[in-house]
């Protein structure tokens, strides 16, 4: 079992789809998956956010299905706590299954990752 650490630096389809495609694929292979949403990527994890992205990219795989599959396979969606200082939202505004952590926590948990990606 490998560890895969992915950072998401934007909230547009080009930033969000690759982490979910790679993350759900890795989780399906029994890999440990950590997807960390920086303040720039955090808005994608607001309630309704992935549905909007899904509608904006109808020819890509279903983002909602990948999200649900990733959680079912124990993938972790981590949102940087600094996002709350940058944007006007709270932890209650995030979709179910996200964890709010600091960058230090992500770095600690991602330590020793076999694969790393950034989008």
Structure overview:
The chain has a single domain, classed as Hypothetical Protein Ychn, Chain: A (3-Layer(aba) Sandwich), CATH 3.40.1260.10. The relative contact order is 0.26. Helices cover 39% and strands 21% of the residues. Helix 1 (13-28) runs parallel beside helix 3. The protein has a 5-stranded parallel beta sheet with strand order 4-3-2-1-5. Strand 3, helix 4 and strand 4 form a beta-alpha-beta unit. The chain is globular and about 35 Å long. With 119 residues, it is of the alpha/beta class.
Oligomer: single chain
Strand order of the largest sheet: 4-3-2-1-5
What is the C-alpha radius of gyration, as a whole number of Å? 13 Å
Reading off the top of the CATH hierarchy, the class is best stated as: Alpha Beta
Q: List segments where confidence is low: pLDDT < 50 over at least 5 consecutive residues.
A: none
Proper CATH architecture: 3-Layer(aba) Sandwich
Helix and strand content put the structural class at alpha/beta
Summarize the amount of helix as a percent range: 25-40%
Give a short summary of the structure.
With 119 residues, the chain is α/β, with parallel strands linked by helices.
Strand and helix layout:
Blueprint: E1 3-8, H1 13-28, E2 32-37, H2 49-56, H3 63-72, E3 76-80, H4 83-86, E4 98-101, H5 103-110, E5 115-118
Parallel strand pairs: 1-2, 1-5, 2-3, 3-4
Helix pairs in contact: 1-3
